[in-house]
Write a structure and sequence with these properties.
The structure is a homodimer of 645-residue chains. Chain A has 645 residues and is of the alpha/beta class. Chain A starts with a strand and ends with a strand.
Chain lengths: 645, 645
Amino acid sequence: MFEIIRRDGLARIGKFATRAGVLETPALLPVVNPKILTVTPRELYEEFGFRALITNSYIIRSNDDIKQRAENEGLHSLLDFPGIIMTDSGTFQSHMYGEVEVSNQDIVNFQKRIGSDIGTVLDIFTEPFWTEEETAASISVTLERTKEAASMKDDMMIAGVVQGSVYPHLREMCAHRMRDMDVNVHPIGGVVPLMEQYRYEELVDVIIASKKGLSPDRPVHLFGAGHPMVLSLAVLLGCDMFDSASYAKFARDDRMMFIDGTYRLEDMLSLDCKCPACGSHTLETLRKLPDKERTRTIARHNLYEITKELSIIKRYILEGRLWELVEQRCRAHPALLGALRKLSEHGEFLERYEPLSRDGAMFYTGPETYSRPVFRRYLERVSERYVPRTKSMESFTDNGGCGKPYLREYHKEFVWARREGRTPVVMSPFGPVPEELDEIYPIAQSLFPQIADMETEKRIDPSDNPLNFETVTVTAIRGSHEDAEPIDTTEGALVDKAKAVARYQFGIAAANTLMSGKIELVVSRNTGKIRNVISDGEHVLSMRAGDGFYTLRPEGAARIIKNVPAPHMRVTVSDDAVPFVSEGKNVFCAFVTGCDDNIRPMEEVLVVDGNDRLAAVGRAVMVRDEMLSFRKGVAVKVRDGVGKS
Amino acid sequence: MFEIIRRDGLARIGKFATRAGVLETPALLPVVNPKILTVTPRELYEEFGFRALITNSYIIRSNDDIKQRAENEGLHSLLDFPGIIMTDSGTFQSHMYGEVEVSNQDIVNFQKRIGSDIGTVLDIFTEPFWTEEETAASISVTLERTKEAASMKDDMMIAGVVQGSVYPHLREMCAHRMRDMDVNVHPIGGVVPLMEQYRYEELVDVIIASKKGLSPDRPVHLFGAGHPMVLSLAVLLGCDMFDSASYAKFARDDRMMFIDGTYRLEDMLSLDCKCPACGSHTLETLRKLPDKERTRTIARHNLYEITKELSIIKRYILEGRLWELVEQRCRAHPALLGALRKLSEHGEFLERYEPLSRDGAMFYTGPETYSRPVFRRYLERVSERYVPRTKSMESFTDNGGCGKPYLREYHKEFVWARREGRTPVVMSPFGPVPEELDEIYPIAQSLFPQIADMETEKRIDPSDNPLNFETVTVTAIRGSHEDAEPIDTTEGALVDKAKAVARYQFGIAAANTLMSGKIELVVSRNTGKIRNVISDGEHVLSMRAGDGFYTLRPEGAARIIKNVPAPHMRVTVSDDAVPFVSEGKNVFCAFVTGCDDNIRPMEEVLVVDGNDRLAAVGRAVMVRDEMLSFRKGVAVKVRDGVGKS
């Protein structure tokens, strides 16, 4: 049903297949009130390109005339919408105006009857001010109803709403309990009050907790989130779908949505929008439009602002730079900035989805950038996997403004330190970077401002060094070197680099087997960089110039199979997939039966059969949980199939 | 010639009157090469609304055909442009391709002859890599030539270019030496290499140094700055004019300008622009356009992106929020972030132009926000002008997430501290805030994220308190209060607040005379806030609810005249202006003969005649240097004229 096309951490561009067509995500579903069509569904489809909308089955059911039409001709004809129609259940109405005179069964059946493509359970809305007990009790009801709805859905899809107020463990529990239920989409509900009160930090906790619990193969819908200001953050956290009633509601109040906030037409001091709705309007001409036309113009503006932001978000996902977009957007309000800072508390979860490397340079945009899992990743790996070559180190500093790779900036000093038997280590914003790792992503591919902030100063403090040097910090006296001519031991240094990168990327045991015996390096004549690693005559690894990491050759993979126990670096596929994979075809999720939990997106993996026999070598596109739950999509991009032995 | 309409610190919306029409600034002048018209000047005027363009007189002069047409019909007819035409002189050509075969006299005369509205001196381009000596020597030539050009300009305006490479003192000297010359616009030259090399920190130093030297009444043109990414920062530093050849040059290379950078069409992964040029183009349809049409489409896109950003900049100036826009924009590249951080080194200069208060809340967007002069202003004033009421203080903390005003958040605790004879002081991101100042701008009107960064943690450290309490930091044990019922001494506290705000706003001496004798307060029945201050029966001050500051009443002003020596808070006007001002008319710059150098925009001022007799009370719109140099525009908005005595 749902398939990932491209990803950037938890963020994903997906395809959600429904009986009424395929929805590309991230997607926003405009809320359509059948009684007031500010913009017609047909226009939403044709002019704006919306492939899905959401409408409220409870409201339809409450209006005899519309109800009858919906039952007779169906929702698609009633609304004149050729795309996907999702319906809400009346949960919110029930919550706001007391018990509704409809049961879960009734409303699910009604949604089926009127031809909704995605119906919603009559769940219980949990308010942020509810106690834990109240919340837990209401979740039980929601879960019962979800089970019931799933059992009676037939060919309608069902949206199972994750509730749990502001209690992360209840959100996660609720989400987790829905894993076994046959539902298709997971709205995260009860979050509108958080957004209205600018409680974005709690919103972050709620989304992350829900994501932890949910099965990754179903789209996640952030219920009621429709302001362009918040979309990029929500997508970064793995939300795929949104809806907006605000585009029309705000328009009726003369409020225009912009990426940096909402503005009342009467308070605005100028109009700087050139969207097709605003066109050549000035503030004056817009204000003077007759009521109905003005509302319609503002609603269309709001929709254009939303679609533009979604389109920008997709671009940043494609570029692997969504964190940077979010870090820009979160400056629009201090509460959003707080939310961004909150992400640092979820580093462990975020790191699971963080790719090994990205295209292009990493831009530092302020201390919030340290929330990115790439920092945690580096520190963890270098602490666990770096093996010092020498007993002592010599420390250098990069406060952000240093040239890269460091060897180019500090060439003479590095050579000297090596000669003296010390390892050059650069105290950088990422943590300590031993000379050998100065070309891997993101060390060499990052840009910082020349003027450091306090968080950066703290990170480059040499007293805070987790590496296992016996004697820490032998800072050489600069200047004493200047006359002397150190001997460049480049060749030895390159072998050390080859080993250190292998350990960082594959772990110590795998690196040891890859680098055993006699090591020969093929080095680029132009750049002096390592290209290939030959171990005892076998070409085991090739190094990529872009991110400084290796691609694993089948000969290298065979050694890991032999010497490093499973499941390290393994993706296991079912027997029927082996012949295809062995011929170099990609591994599809449906055929994955097991996976090393430590594999991250973009990492080199060994594709093996049930007996740990090598079938192929490739790059993971997903992490374990995803490979095992998705039914569609590529799990591993195979580079080399290893023909049957 | 030049007039300020609205301002936000150094940034200004201005009107620059030329013989060919009025140019509203900030403005960008598209560079038009008469040999290649990617977009015609007529289109620039009519479709995009550009009221001025720039073209190169040296190139025109070098092409016999075009030269003859320019001399015969004039530039406006040659280019078919009904707006203002500025010409460049060949400086850049001379710099790039060696000495040009034209003298300063020749090229100035030629510019006059072809009907340029604003001609440019043949100055010497100073490269960033030049030594101080080379730079200084070349500035002498530039200054000589500028003097010569000014003397021969007749009714053409002259642009006098500020040079000086990366040496701030040379930039300032060069700028200062031009104060006495009869030139009309000041381009800051030689900055293109800095921008091309992303040396934005140095660009900041260069602009500030030039602004310090220049007379404030002439528009400042940042030569060669045309990327939308950099415009908001340059406007924030007081640049009024820009030019862009890039819109067309980039287009010929298939490069599209966006607010977050420049993208090559071939590298782009999606097109998310809905500007009138991109319209309904997708990446595919745009790529497939025939060369000429594609170039034209991209050039038009680039122009729309520029005009949109200028329009957004104007909106933020009108809203008094330009710092916030710049802080968003500078996340697009770490080098821009570095530039933003560099501003903290120019706090003293920036503070001179910082208004007393702004409309709306102040948003914190990260540690760079501490570069804003509003922080320096508060710390300076509170250190100099706050007089502790008690010997000891009790410290509270606001790490950003505290409710405001503080009295509401900490009501019981404050009352208790007062009763115990201690002054409650909140250690806030602005520095220590004594209870009495908790409602003034920006203390009560600011929003910070709930999670503090290290810079904020440092600022709220109670050991770093510049206030003059004898015994510093008596931190009460919370909880011991909870049972007891403290006595609310609100009335006394309000009088203390009335006095403390007066000292902060007007200085200690003026506050003492305003608050002498018996003090009565008129307090709002709804909010409990101070409205009017009556001293010995005279209504001397009214307090504004919005920013917590006073408006000064004529009775109060009379006391300051009597008891606080000039020039404190005075703006002196010439005798012929006194009758008008006394009747309540605004003070225009042309009539200002003197001004207290400590007056900041939006501050209460006394308008006096040459004998220090009060003529009116009002709010300053400008600072001293501006009042004395501008020939047009309002210097003081008069609230109460004081009829002749």
